[in-house]
Amino acid sequence: MRIAVLTSGGDAPGMNAAVRAVVRRSLVKGFSVFGVWNGYQGMVDGEIRPLGWHDVGGIINKGGTFLGTARSEDFKRYEGRREAVKHLLEHGINALVVIGGDGSLTGAYVLANEWADHVRELGGDGDSVLHVVGLPGSIDNDLYGTDMSIGADTALNHIVRAMDDLSSTAASHQRTFVVETMGRHCGYLALMAGLAGGASWVLIPEEELDMRWHNKMIEAIAKAREAGRPHQMVVVAEGARHADGLPIQSKEVCDLISKRLNINTRLTVLGHVQRGGAPTAFDRILATRLGVAAVDFLAENPEARHCHMVGLRENRIVFTHLEEVVQKSKAVVEELEKGNYQKALELRGTSFRN
Ligand code: F6P
């Protein structure tokens, strides 16, 4: 087997550990392994090079992705994917490991399905198959088919550390802090940070808010102050929405608290710092387990046509067909947009339960 590995979409700490595991396990299994630089864009542009054991040395503890990543517009077009197939064929590649979020795994699914057509039109064997295994790589933890995606734990630790750091200055000034986290369509980071950081209130996209949510939040903060806690934290996921579907701006939450309670309130938008830095031990281990499992899956069933994502559910490695991953991950967002919160949570799977 000749395997290409790439990282795509927003980077996530632990992607390097995943690439390392894929490369080294492939070599152990006697496969040739290639790196694709800058995600699907590198595939379109032909930036594909062989990787050896030492090329992935000293990266398990590094954030970002040494292969580079991109959100490629070219790859979204059929002609762009044709170029990508041409370049994979030039290297005799017949298996692809993609590490990324829902957009990246959708790209992998589309490519796997179109592969034979492209190969035929390029004059090759129309019966040929591209085996695809996806690894969930996203700090948002918004993918169906896994309890945790690579990078989410590191991002969560950044947020909790920031909340801990903010609490001393907040307490000194008796201030309330509003902390905005990433998470376009998923409140995992905000909710878990709220639990771990002792927040008074958390706003996430998955919660159906009634018209009185402001009052409930204000009441919770007022109660905490009455109980003698000098400072409070409110966590707002960037994807949180009002009942009418309009985004909740963290600045508006901050102003509201300050006005209604007449207290000193400050806003901290954590932004891309959440995606940076060294991966936690959990993310390194998760990435390594998933990377090894992806290659073993390819090695163990060479005859089967693989089009799966490898994930972790209840601490066990599981494989879910990419079609299901892609459809259910998209369906969650659609249900959220329609205001069907319960349905969205059911579709989300195990990452949000309990
Ligand atoms: O999907 C990961 C993510 O970090 C989201 O949480 C965030 O909304 C988005 O990427 C930011 O994207 P960019 O790095 O392109 O600004």
UniProtKB/TrEMBL annotation:
Domain Phosphofructokinase, residue spans: 2-298
Domain of life, per lineage: Bacteria
Transmembrane segments: none
Subcellular location: Cytoplasm
Family of the protein in this entry: Belongs to the phosphofructokinase type A (PFKA) family.
Name of the protein in question: 6-phosphofructokinase
Segment of the intact protein contained: 1 to 354 of 725
